[in-house]
């Protein structure tokens, strides 16, 4: 399976690609300098003008943009097009604070559909496919992004949006979707609900899942692939840059191809803000190089990843970003040790006996941080003796201590007792925030 939606761009010779990126960056910088006072001032403060940007390598001279800049310029302050040219608004609430608003021109919407169409092809979705879109529709970019991409390739779209999980299962069975788009945590919830309803794998036709919008581990991937009998594709994106479709896995599953002819990626050291070379980890930064409505220069995503420029057997020449396993904001610090929820996820799933439904509860007692890992036990373990349950808790606790260097309390809870997510899963409950 090796099909491209847009071979000219996806397989472009890298020298030609860099040329094109330079050209597009020049146009973007000129556009924001002329139309967005925020960027004009930032560039003036750095003593640079649009003519200083000649090739893509000059990108490092440009100022960064952070989420607070979007909030400070709420709602339309960073738009580079007049309102009459803005055909769509999307927004993201994040975990805290004000909404961040994004404006698209018709061309931006077309570009978004284009990169989502490429993503669909990467996941083997084409006009013969039936795609159930169970990402939320609305201001969140997941639903509409997947919808436009699936329509663009000519697939049959089933726009269920998220929620009403039993109905999702009935529709999967009755309409015969071959691809499912939703968050990985919701995919798992759909799989569990399917089992509870007695719907078996031979009653559904799913072949692939296009999952993203939240961090998820390879252990979780295997779990979902097993439960739904499908191949999973990781899709990455953020509303500030366009929505889903910034990067996606091909069938080699060796990182996510960034659609570099539209979104230029960099990795920086989050402390020094200096760029780091391909192959080294750091914070992902994106510059949109074709956007009209709200172009962003060097937007700091807070997502941790690395870039890989080695050739991919699929023939696409765009660099790949490593699966994002966490954002610096999600990192919890327990008595000085840094932990990402995904690190705990890997341990839990690999241990077996528990279900991949978990919550990390962080607190502070007697001036010391505490971490409690709540995880659902399997039905089998639940019906076993208390002694076995305690033993399992002890084993998980020991494993967390060896692997992550933190002592955590592990509490196995009843099956189905933790809240299920229909969108982005909440993995951490930090009670320290209320105590400061
Ligand atoms: O989550 C867009 C999206 C929708 C992507 C559907 C993929 C699928 P936001 O709500 O603005 O946009 O959240 C963006 O979500 O900075 C990451 O921290 C996280 N994220 C998105 N995709 C992935 C992924 C959408 N595949 C934020 N793996 C980003 C890990 C992801 N984290």
Can you offer a commentary on this structure?
The protein is of the alpha/beta class and 436 residues long. It has twelve helices and 20 strands. The strands form five sheets. The chain has a nine-stranded mixed β-sheet with strand order 4-3-5-6-7-8-9-14-13. A four-stranded mixed β-sheet has the order 19-18-17-20. The chain is globular, with a radius of gyration of 22 Å. The N and C termini lie far apart (54 Å).
Cross-sheet strand order for the largest sheet = 4-3-5-6-7-8-9-14-13
Question: Biggest sheet: strands, sense, closure?
Answer: 9 strands, mixed
Report strand %. Answer: 15-25%
Instruction: Give the termini separation.
Output: 54 Å
Detail the poorly predicted runs.
none
Q: What's the average pLDDT?
A: 96
- Heteromolecules bound: 5'-O-[hydroxy(phenylacetyl)phosphoryl]adenosine
Q: DSSP helix count? A: 12
DSSP, total strands: 20
Report the C-alpha radius of gyration, rounded: 22 Å
**Cα shape:** globular
Helical amount: 25-40%
The helix/strand class is alpha/beta
């Amino acid at each position: 399976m090796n099909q491209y939606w847009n071979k000219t761009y996806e397989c472009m010779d890298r020298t030609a690609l860099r040329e094109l990126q330079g050209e597009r960056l020049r146009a973007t910088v000129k556009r924001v300098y002329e139309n967005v006072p925020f960027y004009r001032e930032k560039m003036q403060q750095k003593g640079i003008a649009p003519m200083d940007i000649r090739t893509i390598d000059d990108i490092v001279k440009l100022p960064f943009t952070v989420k607070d800049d979007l909030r400070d310029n709420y709602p339309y302050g960073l738009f580079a097009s007049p309102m009459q040219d803005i055909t769509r608004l999307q927004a993201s609430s994040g975990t805290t604070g004000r909404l961040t608003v994004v404006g698209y021109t018709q061309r931006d919407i077309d570009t978004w559909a284009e990169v989502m169409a490429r993503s669909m092809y990467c996941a083997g979705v084409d006009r013969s496919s039936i795609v159930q879109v169970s990402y939320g529709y609305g201001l969140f970019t997941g639903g509409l992004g997947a919808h436009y991409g699936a329509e663009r390739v000519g697939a049959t779209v089933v726009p269920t949006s998220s929620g009403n999980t039993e109905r999702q299962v009935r529709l999967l069975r009755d309409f015969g979707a071959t691809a499912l788009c939703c968050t990985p945590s919701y995919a798992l919830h759909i799989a569990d609900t399917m089992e509870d309803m007695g719907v078996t794998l031979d009653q559904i036709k799913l072949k692939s899942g296009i999952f993203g919008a939240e961090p998820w581990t390879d252990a979780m991937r295997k779990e979902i692939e097993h439960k739904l009998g499908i191949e999973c594709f990781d899709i990455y994106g953020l509303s500030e840059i366009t929505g889903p479709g910034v990067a996606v896995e091909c069938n080699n599953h060796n990182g996510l191809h960034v659609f570099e002819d539209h979104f230029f990626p960099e990795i920086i050291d989050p402390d020094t803000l200096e760029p780091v070379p391909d192959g080294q980890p750091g914070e992902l930064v994106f510059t949109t190089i074709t956007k009209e409505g709200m172009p962003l220069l060097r937007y700091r995503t807070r997502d941790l990843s690395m870039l890989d420029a080695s050739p991919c057997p699929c023939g696409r020449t765009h660099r790949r970003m490593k699966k994002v396993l966490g954002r610096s904001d999600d990192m919890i610090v327990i008595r000085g040790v840094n932990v990402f929820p995904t690190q705990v996820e890997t341990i839990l799933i690999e241990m077996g006996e528990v279900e991949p439904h978990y919550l990390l509860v962080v607190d502070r007692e007697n001036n010391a941080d505490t971490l409690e890992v709540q995880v659902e036990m399997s039905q089998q373990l639940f019906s076993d003796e208390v002694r076995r349950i305690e033993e399992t808790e002890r084993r998980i606790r020991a494993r967390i201590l060896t692997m992550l260097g933190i002592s955590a309390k592990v509490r196995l809870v009843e099956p189905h007792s933790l809240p299920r997510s229909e969108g982005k899963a909440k993995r951490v409950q930090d009670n320290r925030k209320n105590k400061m």
